[in-house]
Amino acid sequence: MSKHETTAPAVRATGIGKTFDTKAGPVQALTDVDLEVAAGEFVSLIGPSGCGKSTLMRLVADLDGPTTGRLEVFGKSPAQARQDQDYGIAFQQAGLLPWRTVADNIGLPLELHRMDRSARAARVAELAELVGLTDFAGSYPDQLSGGMQQRVAIARSLAEQPRLLLMDEPFGALDEMTRERMQTELSRIVAETGAAVVFVTHSIPEAVFLSDRVVVMSPRPGRITTLISTGIGPGVVRDEQLRETTGFFEKVTEVREALHGAPVGSSAREGR
Amino acid sequence: MSARSVLDGGARPGHDRLVRIVAPIVVGLAGLALWQLLVGVVGVSAYLLPSPAEIASEWSANVGPIADGTWITGSNAVLGLVVGGAVGVLLAALASRLRWFDLMLAPVVAALAVVPIVALAPVLNSMFGADSEFGRRAIAAIASFVPVFVNSLRGLRQTTPLQRDLMRSYAASGSQTFRVLTLPSAAPYVLTGFRVASSLAVISALVAEYFGGPRGGLGAFISTSAATSAYARAWAYVGAAILLGLALYLVTVAAERLIGRLLSGGAR
Amino acid sequence: MTIEQTSLRAGRPRARGTAARVRATALGLLGLVAVAVIWEVYKVFGPDDGVVVAGHRILPRTTDLAMPHVWEMVARLLGPTTSQAGAAPLWLTVAQAALVSLGIAAVGWVVGTVVGIALGVLMQMVRVAEHGLLPWVVLSQTVPLIAFAPVLKNWGAQIEVGDWRWPQWLSVAVIASYLAFFPVAVGMLKGLQSPPRTHLELMHTYDAGRWATLVKVRLPAAVPYLLPALRLGVASAVVGTVVAEVSTGFMDGIGRQLVSFAGQASGDPAKAWAPIFGAVVLGLVAAGLVGLIGLALRSYRRGEAT
Fold first, then answer.
1. Which of A101, A188, A268, C140 is the most buried (most CB within 10 A)?
2. What angle (nearest 5°) sits at the alpha carbon of residue C62, between those of residues B124 and B220?
3. ipTM score here?
4. Is residue C240 one of the residues assigned to a domain?
5. Do B133 and B81 fall into the same domain?
6. Residues B212, B89 share a domain
7. pLDDT-derived band at B4, boundaries 50, 70, 90
């Protein structure tokens, strides 16, 4: 890796608030968010719609600016981190350019940052292999399944060897089986690259399976309510067996209870 | 709630609306100023570019002929638009129902769309008589027919299989499906077709007059004035043609808005 | 999202397979034949003086003078242009005039396209330009400024730079370009604004500037919008050329022929139809040539929405 390592955490958010001006008046999307993501750590943001999890990720990506508070990415401002290409990003929609082949889509950031042609081709081949799409390098996005498109998007987000990956429900549009396969694959890829991940999701098992820590958020106004360590740890291989361990189920229950704000047994009061 | 991002450049809604109104006015005034500058300071001869004042005085000197010409050209355009549009909607309805009819009509419409229809003006004059305005109306009608047909057909095909399945599951009758589903989804497209056709109808009715036939319309006046080097008068007639085109366009826009509101109100 | 996609595809019936294509072609030809048949049937059964309702003739006269037989029109094309000895066949005379008009329309179309694309890019890049210009661009087409063709001819006549004099055909081309630029400018702007937010945000995360975004995302995304605009533009350019030829008195093109042959219709009714066929072919050829551009850019039309 060419970028020199720092001891600064991947993300450090202190007292973050975000207010949007809408026609119906100001809407508080986030309030008083404190969060630190260590280098190499996998953190999921989970919560119901409107809890501000995507907004928080967009602030980290410098796609929006916070209204209040301080946000640092590897000790720099988000804008600086973006200019230095410290992070890679993937959205729910793969967002591939339909007129480019798989290889050209993966190579887009490298092309924009003027990597020379032969080095680019080598890097693209490496990335295509990493996500298992070597045979489809010359295909166009409309010839691929949703899961394959999402793999291309992940390969693209890894192109610049970022130390931080930002993922906004990348598997949200996939069917359950593809989704589980993609999760296993993502954990393998992340382990290989050693990047920190901020992962936005709606799915409790997905969050628990992938993460070192799960951040539970709640809406109106968007805020962090609970932080849960999965205890699985970065060194552990995440495979199909893990999904069936008692520890996994316990953590799933714990996250669910945190989301509902009460033990699941008393969920009759949910309508409150 | 979709987050507004850096891509919007942080534009405030109120500020944006102001720019939307002020900017075109500024551009328009700049155009007028340039015109005045060319005539007044640079000294472009009145032969080439008459000043607004000259055109205005020609206008007031020829109010009668301008009104008559606008009436003739305007009624030709409106008749053409109404008849051509009605035929367009009718044939589109047929084509959306009957696949073979659609396929038969396709090359004719495709050809009409790229062919200069005014070319028919001279023969239409001999078919209907040189004293007849019919040729111009027919040309305006054919020119209007194309966009109305194309847009209507697209509109009638807007219903998705999902929606049709839904209507079927409600055991809705044919006329119910038409009223609840097909009409509201097709109407905006039909109206768009009419809006596009309105400009075409005026232009076609006007330029058809360059190809002979009875005198008396705006187009005939423009070419006679230009031929006798009465440029300020020609411009006055051009001005009337501009107002006519604009008026018809605004009428179709108003109809589009009104019917759009009625339909979306009725759906609720 | 998946439902929307599948329904979009299903809602757009596309003839697939050879059998379907043969059927479509056959029915298409049948449609053209039907037009000729309706013509002839009306000619046989319609009254000589047409149908007159309340003083307005709403169906045409059916005399040979007003409505020549379809086969006479075709036969006339093969005959000589004039009765003079050694006159070229009519179809050749018409084709030559149509070719001249095609050349002029092409010049007008290229100029209009360049101006339209430039305006589209300007309006996309500079928001104030969009707000300031777009209403005028739309207005410029709702008003029949083609009416102004007779005036423009005299502007050209005044221009003289050294030995170079403004040729008359250039006035015609300018009018053609005026008609052609509008759909291109509007289509281009729409296309440049078409990329989904995800694509633009992605470019932002790559720290790509406005130009890089324009070249890598906006321009390719504009292609599916630009192509129909180019087709509309070329059709407008052809109409503009024909009309401007007539109104400026340009002698060599198909427009003049339409008028002068119609003037001979009392003695030679079928001859008036020859330049009409010429104009039809002219329009089709022009549209076909632009269609080739679409073929060349087909890789940018993947996932086309229309």
1. A101
2. 20
3. 0.82
4. yes
5. yes
6. yes
7. very low
